[in-house]
Every structure is written in structure tokens, then in C-alpha cells.
Amino acid sequence: MNTRLSRHPGNSEQRGIAMIEALIALLVLSLGVLGLARLQMSALTESRNTNARAVAVQLANDLAERMQSNAIVRRTNPNPNPYVTVWGAPAAAVTDCRASACNGNDLAAFDLRAWKLNLGRLLPNGDAQVFRSDTDSNQFGVLVRWTELEGKNKALANQAEGALFTRADAVTDAAGAVGTGMANFTCPANFICHLVYIRP
User: Fold this and answer.
1) pLDDT per position as a tens digit, 174-188
2) Of residues 174, 156, 176, 173, the one with CA closest to residue 165
């Protein structure tokens, strides 16, 4: 007796549906993994930005201590003060104050060079401006800048999200206005800045 096995059409349809379900499950899993990866990158970037801000505060404190230890300049508080500086590479110090005695101005030039070189090593494209306050001659603003760290997805942000990113990175004065409160001292575009006021 010759018997033939016939395929049941339902089995083929069930296998097709099972395959589609498996592909959909794989797609959902992939989207979940991508979402977690994006969240991890965002957290890492914010952690790096927080660390950079902590370094900026430490560097401002370091400069305050250098200014405090320069007794000649601190006592006389000359105008212009030799610790005031603009963006850019530090000038070469005339005297190596570790090897020989320095006057107050030479020590300030030596301190600024060492400080700015250290700032460049610790922060990506790190630089700083130091300026005297308009309202208090014993107070100095230290505006530290570094390259904006990538990974915040600003390019994908809508207008409201972009405004939040800008506001989070903005330098603001005590009244909440954007800026340092000093006309010629602002954070350049594509940099993140941190402003600290010191009183040596």
C-alpha cells in the first residue's frame, strides 16, 4: 500500500508567523540596546563635563594660591596687575623663579606660564582669561575655557532642547544674566567656560 504524506498548509503559515514574530522581537531588542548605548554615551559625556568643571575650579584655586604667595604684588596690588591675562599661549617667563630669586612681576610671569601650560594639559584646548573686577580691585575673575565635549546630540535636538543645552553651558553672572558682567570677557563659540571669582 502506497501512502503519501500530505503537508498541512497550517504548519507553513505558523512557521512564517513565528519567523515574523522573531524578527520583530529582534528589532525591539536592537532598539533597546541602542537606547541603552545612547544613554551610556550621554552619561559618560556629562561625567566628563562635570570632571572638566571640577578641574577648572581647582585651577582657579591654584592661581589664587599663586597670587597669594606673591607677597610683593599682593601687597602693592598694581594696576595693571601682572596676573591679568588674555586668551592665548603664555609668554615665556624671563626668569626661572625655581632657579633664582624673582621680583614680583617676574614671579607673576613665571606663575602664569606654568599655570596656563598646566591648564592646557588638563583640559582639551584649555585656556583662560584673568581680569580684575570693575567694582572691587581686590577681586579677579578667572574665565576658564575648554573644547566642548561631543556626544550631547545637539545636532539632533529640537529648538527647545537646544535652548536647554545652551543655557546649561552658559556663563551667567550673579543676577542670572548671560555673560561675565564685564564687557570684553565672554566665552567663545564652541567652547564651554567656567567663571570663578577669586580674592587673593
Assistant:
1) 555 555 556 677 888
2) 156
